[in-house]
């Protein structure tokens, strides 16, 4: 008898609005974004998720929310619950509604309440440990509130000092069971003692952001030097174009929420 053949992931994505031109920017100067090109990059990203066996659930773009494609910032997925964030940028707080509806069909929901703020891009979940970047978006109050919200699920929450970047996952993501890809100039790596660290190429400071689907990694094509490092490590990399979305300070993890499909109800 044949076993299940599909990849056990469900990815939730959201479309690119024309209003992305008016996105939030923290570290970059505003430059024109080619919306059609951004949409075609996004389509390639979704096709890559699908080619890796992901089931993809799409939420329509909302023109009133220029950053809505960066759905990762609105929620985090844990074992047993999804936690709706309270984004640090006030312009992004109205993005939650349709994401809440989509996630609520799969998982019990909990909500981070004011005055706490936190963006999902600041949250790196490694097993039962949750690391949160102390960024301009995620506050110490947010960390305390999240710790209280998830304690009964067995998670521990820890803040991580950051500098010169938007989110924790701009600076470090997981690329293997015990391996992280990081830009040590942007993040204090001491909290990650026990994990192996692969460093980005110094000429590609933004290259630490990777989507990991078990053994398969999705990484932006515009980081060839860091890609070489991943490949030299024996990792399986699927490059996707992401240059237009990068002008909005977005990267690959930002464009999806990933649930293990067997946990989705
Ligand atoms: C923002 O500043 O909120 C958006 N322009 C970019 C968000 C990128 N999200 C992410 O890295 N998780």
What does this entry look like structurally?
This protein has 265 residues and is an alpha/beta fold. 20% of the residues lie in helices and 26% in strands. A three-stranded mixed β-sheet has the order 2-1-15, sandwiched between helices. Strands 3-4-5 form a three-stranded mixed β-sheet, with helices on one face. Strand 3 and strand 4 form a beta hairpin. The longest helix is centred in the first third of the chain and has 17 residues, at 35-51. It is globular, with a radius of gyration of 17 Å. It starts with 8 loop residues before the first strand and ends in a 5-residue tail after the last strand. The relative contact order is 0.18. Mean pLDDT is 95; it is low at 1-5. The structure holds citrulline. The site of citrulline has 17 residues, from loops.
Q: What order do the helices and strands come in, and which of them pair?
A:
Layout: E1 9-14, H1 35-51, E2 55-59, E3 75-78, E4 81-84, H2 96-104, E5 109-111, E6 123-126, E7 129-134, H3 140-150, E8 156-161, H4 168-171, E9 172-176, E10 179-182, E11 196-199, E12 211-213, E13 216-220, H5 224-232, E14 236-240, H6 243-246, E15 257-260
Parallel strand pairs: 1-2, 4-5, 7-8, 10-11, 13-14
Antiparallel strand pairs: 1-15, 3-4, 6-7, 9-10, 12-13
The structure holds citrulline (CIR).
Citrulline binds at residues 23-24, 26, 67, 70, 72-73, 89, 92, 121, 166-167, 248-251, 254.
């Amino acid at each position: 008898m044949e076993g299940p053949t599909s990849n056990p992931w469900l990815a939730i994505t959201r479309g690119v609005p024309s209003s992305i031109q008016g996105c939030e920017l923290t570290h970059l100067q505003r430059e024109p974004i080619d919306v059609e090109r951004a949409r075609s990059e996004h389509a390639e990203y979704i096709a890559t998720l699908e080619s890796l066996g992901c089931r993809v659930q799409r939420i329509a773009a909302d023109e009133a929310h220029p950053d809505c494609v960066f759905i990762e910032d609105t929620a985090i997925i844990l074992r047993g619950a999804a936690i709706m964030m309270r984004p640090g940028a006030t312009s992004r707080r109205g993005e939650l509604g349709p994401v809440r509806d989509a996630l609520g069909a799969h998982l019990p929901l909990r909500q981070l309440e004011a005055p706490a703020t936190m963006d999902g891009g600041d949250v790196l979940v490694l097993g039962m440990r949750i690391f949160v970047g102390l960024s301009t978006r995620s506050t110490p109050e947010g960390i305390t509130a999240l710790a209280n919200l998830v304690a009964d699920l067995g998670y521990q929450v820890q803040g991580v000092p950051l500098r010169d970047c938007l989110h924790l996952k701009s600076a470090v993501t997981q690329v293997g069971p015990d391996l992280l890809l990081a830009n040590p100039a942007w993040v204090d790596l001491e909290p990650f003692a026990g994990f192996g660290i692969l460093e980005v190429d110094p000429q590609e400071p933004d290259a630490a952001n990777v989507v990991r689907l078990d053994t398969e990694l999705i990484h932006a094509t515009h980081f060839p030097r860091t890609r070489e490092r991943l490949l030299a490590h024996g990792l399986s990399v699927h490059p996707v174009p992401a240059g237009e979305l990068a002008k909005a300070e977005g990267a690959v993890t930002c464009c999806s929420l990933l649930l293990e499909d067997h946990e989705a109800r």
